[in-house]
Design brief:
The structure is a single chain. This protein has 392 residues and is α/β, with parallel strands linked by helices. The chain has two domains: 192 residues, Nucleotidyltransferase, domain 5 (2-Layer Sandwich); 191 residues, 2-Layer Sandwich (Nucleotidyltransferase, domain 5), CATH 3.30.420.40. The protein is 42% helix and 24% strand. It is globular. It starts with a strand and ends with a strand.
Length: 392
């Protein structure tokens, strides 16, 4: 099957489309995945503003959310059409679309609401619009089934990590640095039950938020600003004392923890120590690096060492953060001191920013074949479940 995986992450910078060929492997846990083409499309400025507004707003009208849902459906359909044309996939060659949608709210931990314990997640981008425009079935809304089964609905990428990147000889940690950072730890020779996965904390989200406020730019291109500034170590250590970072996996986070309000407070903390804008961005960059290193030292090191103590360990970075040279230098220095080699996803044959699109193509394939897509060791669900809803 040729499947287009569509991802728009918490950075809300645009739409990634991975056009893939997926075929059955020797068993249900081993489908063969080949990336045919990766394309990326920036959101129009007004759309990005509306998406960020929906994520961060305490008060937004139902009408605005409904309109945004339908507008994103059109944008996703257009992105898939262009990506398929670029991949020379035309006519009826496209079999299926797997669309994650745009997360506007995610609460993986149950909390009291109207007299009951409730978990909630909401991704927008109308699947019916995509199915009608492209005339192919669409699998969407992947997270709720895992939440309903007692999981946190995230992370979902570990299934792809296990299928494509597990090794008999090498222990691999697959770190994605999108808006939020998340990792999958695969000890050498592990089964899916042996994987560990969780959100490490902010990826690019806080860096991007500081760049927006201080420089009027969406992100720190190449880490240039972060490299100019000095890291305010006390601020980093103060943030890392927040309960999220010491909480054991499985765990997930999002803009609810590290979005607009957090960025405002973070800048205020930095301003008490330095008046330099570059120092703020450098400190945000260090926060991401140190949260990743803390997650590894606190939870992953023992897990990998106990499962495969003699195996070589590789730390493989994907997502937009892999393009931030300042961040990557911090990670290489920190992991080098631990004897761990840092690589980028391209070394394993997948472009750094294509990985999540490929993941949702795979999850759509699994759903279409009525196979579970969650890794219970990653999400904390009570059982493996089939993810998503199919729209014809």
């Amino acid at each position: 099957m040729i499947i287009a995986g569509v991802m728009s992450g918490t950075s809300a910078d645009g739409v990634d489309v991975a056009v893939c060929r997926i075929t059955a492997g020797p068993d249900a846990a081993s489908p063969r995945v080949k990336l045919l083409r990766y394309s990326s499309f920036a959101y129009p400025k007004a759309v990005r503003a509306a998406v960020l507004g929906a994520m961060n707003a305490e008060d937004i009208s139902t009408a605005e959310l409904a309109r945004l849902n339908w507008r994103l459906g059109e944008i996703y359909a257009d992105a898939v059409s262009k990506a398929c044309a670029a991949a020379n996939v035309r006519g009826k060659s496209l079999s299926l679309v797997g669309c994650h949608g745009q997360t506007v709210y995610h609460q993986g931990i149950a909390a009291k609401y109207l007299g009951a314990e409730v978990r909630a997640t909401w991704q927008v981008g109308e699947a019916s619009v995509i199915a009608e425009r492209l005339r192919v079935p669409v699998v969407s809304d992947f997270r709720p089934a895992d939440l309903a089964a007692g999981g946190q609905g995230a992370p979902l990428v570990p299934m792809l990590d296990y299928v494509m990147f597990r090794s008999e000889k090498v222990s691999r940690i697959l770190q994605n640095l999108g808006g939020i950072g998340n990792l999958t730890a695969l000890p050498a020779g592990c089964s899916a039950d042996g994987a560990m996965a969780f959100d490490t904390g902010p990826g690019n989200m806080v860096i991007d938020g500081c760049m927006e406020r201080l420089y009027g730019k969406h992100f720190d291109r190449g880490g240039a600003v972060g490299r100019r500034g000095g890291v305010l170590t006390d601020v980093v250590q103060e943030v890392l004392r927040r309960p999220y970072f010491s909480a054991p996996p499985p765990k997930s986070c999002g803009r609810e923890e590290f979005g607009s309000s957090f960025v405002d407070g973070f800048i205020s903390r930095c301003r008490k120590v330095s008046t330099s804008d570059a120092d703020v961005v450098a400190t945000a960059t260090a926060l991401t690096a140190e949260s990743v290193l803390l997650g590894y030292r606190s939870f992953v090191w023992a897990h990998v060492g106990q499962a495969a103590p003699l195996a070589k360990v590789e730390y493989v970075v994907a997502g937009g953060g892999a393009k931030n040279a300042a961040l990557m230098d911090m990670l290489r220095e920190g992991f080098g001191a631990l004897g761990v080699k840092v690589r980028v996803m391209e070394d394993l044959g997948v472009p750094a920013q294509a990985k999540e699109g490929v993941a949702f193509a795979l999850l759509a394939w699994l759903t279409w074949h009525r196979l579970p897509g969650n890794v219970v060791a990653a999400t904390g669900a009570t059982r493996p479940v089939i993810l998503g809803k199919v729209t014809f």
